Amino acid sequence: MLTLDKVYHASYVLKDAVRKTDIIPAHHIYSDAEIFLKTENLQVTGSFKVRGAYYKMSQLSEEEKARGVVACSAGNHAQGVALAARENGIQSVICLPDTAPISKVEATRSYGAEVCMVNGCYDDAYAKALELRDEKGYTFIHPFDDEQVIAGQGTIALELCNQLPDLDAVIVPVGGGGLISGIAFVLKSLNPNIKVYGVEAAGAASMFSALKKGCVDALPNVSTMADGIAVKRPGDLTYQLCRDYVDEIVTVTDDEISAAILALMEQQKLVAEGAGAASVAAAMFHKLPIAGKKVVCIVSGGNIDVTILSRVIKRGLLMSGRNCQLTIELVDKPGQLLDVSRIIAELGGNVISVHHERANEGSAINGCYLRLELETRDAEQIQQIRSTLRNKGFHLLEQTP
Question: Which residues are catalytic?
Answer without folding.
Answer: 49, 300
